[in-house]
Amino acid sequence: MLRSIEITTVVVLTQSPFHNPHWGDTLELSLDCFICQRGGRTTTVVLGAERAVCSGDDRTPEHYTAARIAAFDHTRERGRSSLRAVVDHWWAPFHDAKRDQPATALTRTPWVRLHLGYHCPDQQKSGRFHIQTNEIRPVSSSCEHCAVPLVESREAPGIRSLT
Q: What percent helix, strand, coil does the chain show, rounded to 5?
């Protein structure tokens, strides 16, 4: 069955617009994988790729899985930057034998990590950071080259099943 998950988030931009913080093209989220038949696997999805990568486990190494970013929209206004992504993934019922529980279309404990990038004008170097659902809020990210604050995440990213 084809399932869709919507991911939304907003970050507050600091007073340093010259670093140009921007959303990266990669996200990671937890999905129940029907290929390795394990629940809560970290799945890496890249914008434009036709398939994703499941982290696997000790029995099954990292492998491809049927998931892709179907929509990726971002806006920037009034000191805030928001992101909305929709991930389509294939899901089929199975039983996770290791955890002795049935799989669910949206894993039991949904989790997402969103990547952002920037360019430091002082050092002429690029950098990356991420925000994720399981961080204590508010959380701030600064430039790794000059320590200027870049963004603040005040609310955890939202994750919801569309189908």
A: 0, 60, 40
